[in-house]
Design brief:
single chain; 337 residues; mainly alpha; two-stranded antiparallel sheet; 2 strands
Length: 337
């Protein structure tokens, strides 16, 4: 696609479709990543990604692997659309003289894209993490309470945002609380903490997404350029896919320590022996002191497996021009400049 003729609606459609397709394919791995990152020493419910997925299916059923998928599918469209469109906008702005971009300008464009996307990413991640980690909390509490048969309503009392009992009267020992939905969690956060409740962990999200974009977009652009037969031709779609996968997985592993910090800060509910963190510095120091440097790479493999196909699919949609095709062959074409 020409860098001289940017159709913003087409970019938004491309990013949105790519996000929906990608998330649907890799969401179970993302759930495993969240649960692995939130594990503390001495409370390791899951040994690996596969162990996490198997135990999740056994205890929560097949659809347990898709806890939080609804909020992700709802918000990933604007999130991915903003990210890709913002990067394209900044690249176009920096290349107004018609010359190619330097690596520094490519990094600046990626930085701008990362800063724009956190408007949607932070609340999306906040809600998604509560839903994804709920099953792990149940397992942790169950392990801690094994010697004594106690009421399952204790989990409800730990944090009303994650699970509630809708049974009238006294809750019995066999009562099972119904997990809260993303809408209920959002309403409770807005009621108790205001809009800042949805943006808890904003600083950590910026720490993750800005460096990710700084690494990803220049790396992708240069890898993709290797597949071009000439400067005025696009690379084949398979090369765009492979470039997106390689750049995405590399950037994901590079910023994984920031992702671990973000996940820990945004997790509202914790096991009885899991401590809370007052901020980024406090979180980093406590993880280093109690779990060691290797804890910052928890879930790195899962995150690479999530991001690689997600951005590979995104770049294929983006460069094939699905959005342009939809706009050219539907009434939505009036949105094109």
């Amino acid at each position: 696609m020409s860098q001289q003729h940017i159709s913003l609606p087409a970019k938004l459609i491309n990013g949105g479709i790519a996000g929906i397709v990608g998330v649907t394919c890799v969401f179970p791995i993302d759930l495993a990543k969240t649960r692995l990152q939130n594990q503390r020493q001495g409370q390791q419910v899951y040994k690996s990604m596969m162990d996490c997925l198997v135990k999740t299916v056994r205890s929560e059923g097949y659809f347990g692997m898709y806890r939080g998928a609804a909020v992700n599918l709802t918000l990933v469209t604007p999130e991915k659309a903003i990210k890709l469109a913002a990067n394209d906008f900044f690249r176009h702005h920096f290349a107004k003289n018609g010359q190619g971009l330097s690596v520094f300008k490519e990094m600046l464009a990626g930085c701008g894209a990362g800063m724009c996307q956190v408007i949607v990413t932070t609340p999306m991640e906040m809600l998604k993490i509560q839903l994804q980690d709920a099953g792990r909390i149940v397992s942790v509490v169950a392990e801690q309470q094994k010697p004594v048969i106690t009421s399952s309503s204790k989990l409800v009392a730990t944090n009303p945002l994650l699970s509630r009992s809708y049974n009238s009267g006294t809750v019995t020992a066999l009562a099972t609380p119904r997990p809260a939905s993303a809408t209920q969690i959002a309403r409770e956060l807005l009621r108790t903490q205001g809009i800042q409740g949805l943006y808890k962990g904003l600083g950590a999200t910026l720490m993750r997404d800005v460096p990710f974009s700084v690494v990803y977009f220049p790396l992708f652009a240069n890898l993709n350029r290797l597949g071009q037969s000439s400067a005025d031709q696009s690379s084949p779609f398979y090369w765009a896919f492979l470039s997106g996968c390689a750049a995405g997985s590399t950037a994901a592993v590079v910023v994984n320590p920031c992702d671990v910090v973000k996940t820990r800060l945004q997790s509202l509910n914790k096991g009885s022996a899991e401590e809370a963190y007052s901020g980024v510095v406090d979180c980093v120091s406590k993880i280093l002191r109690k779990e060691g440097p290797s804890a910052f790479m928890k879930g790195a493999g899962c995150r690479a497996l999530v991001i690689a196909p997600l951005f590979g699919i995104a770049q294929v949609m983006y460069f094939v021009g699905v959005g342009e095709y939809i706009l050219d062959n539907s009434p939505l074409g009036v949105l094109s400049p």
